[in-house]
Structures are given as structure tokens and as C-alpha cells.
């Protein structure tokens, strides 16, 4: 993935309005799951690209450090050669003194070349450092969005499960409504009421029959009394004499 594509992906995802995406989705949970997958894949790609960019920057920094160290080393060699030339010249050995001055010049030329190479790479290092910083901030923003997505997804799933459970409870309550005469409990209660009515009817009927029996017994007693008194009259006795 190129640097520009990484920048583009990071900018697009980091600026994503999660609430707006959820509101416009037909199935928010599936949409969030897809976004989590997209963010995770993009973060993985971005991390690889950023790691490569950082690696390239570190190589440039190493090259720059080597050029600086090399320039310093050539500088020390130039100083040493110049000092040797001065020493030889002080003893009258101008021939060798000139040789060491030439060596000092060569060292100074190498120093200038190394310094030039070091300066040439410095703008690139500065630019790459800025790029890496931007990529790191964008990556952190993407990770923050990913955490937000996962949190919103978990909240949404939890709310959906709660709503589903509430609907199940409501349906269960409706299915066992004790006031519903069409329910099993209602029918059972109605059956019991019919049985209770039957018992009350039989009790009332039994009571009326018992009263009739006692009334019949009373009638039999009166008739018996009448027959006894009639027999007494026929025997010439007074009816009152029969009654004790």
C-alpha cells in the first residue's frame, strides 16, 4: 500500500461519522460488524505501511549519522595531516611537509563531500519524520474509532437482546391471561363453577325432599290419632280418655 493510499484510508476512516452510518443502515448490527472488519483490515494494512515508512526513515537516519561521523573522521585526519606538515616544515623538510598538506587537502575534500551528503538527506529525513508522525496520529485515530465501533456494536447487540427478551415476556403474559375465558385456566374455572352449581342444586333438592318426608310423617301421625279416637268411640269410650 502506497503512502498516499494509507493517508487516504486513514483520513476517510478516522473522519467516519459512526452515528450517521448507524442511522442510515437497514441492519445496524450487520453494518457495524462490517465496519469493524473494514477498520481492522485497514489498521493492519496501515500498521504494515507505517512500519515500512519508519524502517525507511531509520535507514536514512543511519546513513545521515554515518555521513556526519565520516565527515568528522575526515576532519580529524585533515587536522592530523596539517599538523604533521607544519612539524616537518619547521624542521626544514618542505618536501614531506607538502605531501602531508596535500593529504590534509584530500581529507578536507572528503569531509566536505560527507557533509554535503549529510545535508542533502536532512530535508528527506525531516519530511519522513513528519509523515511518520502524521501516520501515527492517524493510526491512533483509527484505533479510537475501532474501539468506538466495538463499543457501539456491543451496546446495540445488548439492547436488541433486551428488547427481544421483553417481547418474549409480553407474549408469555398474554398467553396465560387468567381473565381470558378462552384460556385453559378460564375454562377450568368455568367447569368448577358448573360443578359448584350442580352441588348447590342437589343440596337444595335434597333439602326439599327431606321436608316433604317429615310432612308425610306428620300426616301419618294425625291419621293414626283419628283412627284411634274412632275406635274408642265405637267402644263407647270418650276420646279424651284415650289421650294420655
Structure description:
With 244 residues, the chain is mainly alpha-helical. The chain has 2 domains: 3-175, Helix Hairpins; 184-241, no CATH class. 90% of the residues lie in helices and 0% in strands. It is rod-shaped. The mean pLDDT is 79.
Mean pLDDT: 79
Contiguous uncertain segments of 5+ residues: none
Domain tally:
2
Number of helices: 6
Number of strands: 0
What structural category do the secondary elements indicate? Answer: mainly alpha
Question: Within the CATH hierarchy, at the fold level, what is the topology of the largest domain?
Answer: Helix Hairpins
Query: What global shape is seen?
Result: rod-shaped
Which sheet architecture does the biggest sheet show?
none
CATH architecture of the largest domain: Orthogonal Bundle
As a percent range, the share of strand residues is under 5%
- Assembly context of the chains: single chain
Determine the fraction of residues in helical runs and give it as a percent range.
over 70%
Query: How far do the termini sit from each other?
Result: 135 Å
Amino acid at each position: 500500500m502506497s503512502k498516499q493510499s494509507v493517508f487516504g484510508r486513514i483520513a476517510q476512516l478516522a473522519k467516519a461519522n459512526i452515528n450517521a452510518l448507524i442511522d442510515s443502515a437497514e441492519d445496524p448490527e450487520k453494518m457495524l460488524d462490517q465496519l469493524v472488519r473494514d477498520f481492522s483490515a485497514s489498521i493492519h494494512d496501515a500498521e504494515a505501511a507505517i512500519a515500512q515508512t519508519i524502517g525507511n526513515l531509520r535507514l536514512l537516519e543511519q546513513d545521515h549519522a554515518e555521513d556526519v561521523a565520516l565527515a568528522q573522521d575526515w576532519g580529524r585526519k585533515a587536522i592530523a595531516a596539517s599538523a604533521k606538515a607544519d612539524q616537518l616544515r619547521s624542521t626544514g623538510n618542505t618536501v614531506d611537509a607538502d605531501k602531508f598538506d596535500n593529504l590534509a587537502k584530500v581529507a578536507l575534500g572528503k569531509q566536505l563531500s560527507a557533509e554535503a551528503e549529510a545535508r542533502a538527506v536532512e530535508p528527506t529525513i525531516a519530511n519522513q519524520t513528519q509523515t511518520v508522525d502524521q501516520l501515527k496520529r492517524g493510526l491512533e485515530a483509527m484505533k479510537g474509532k475501532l474501539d468506538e465501533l466495538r463499543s457501539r456494536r456491543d451496546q446495540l447487540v445488548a439492547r436488541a437482546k433486551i428488547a427481544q427478551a421483553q417481547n418474549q415476556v409480553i407474549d408469555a403474559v398474554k398467553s396465560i391471561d387468567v381473565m381470558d375465558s378462552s384460556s385453559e385456566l378460564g375454562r377450568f374455572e368455568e367447569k368448577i363453577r358448573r360443578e359448584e352449581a350442580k352441588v348447590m342444586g342437589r343440596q337444595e333438592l335434597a333439602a326439599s325432599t327431606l321436608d316433604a318426608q317429615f310432612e308425610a310423617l306428620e300426616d301419618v301421625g294425625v291419621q293414626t290419632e283419628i283412627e284411634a279416637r274412632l275406635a274408642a268411640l265405637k267402644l263407647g269410650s270418650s276420646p279424651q280418655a284415650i289421650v294420655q
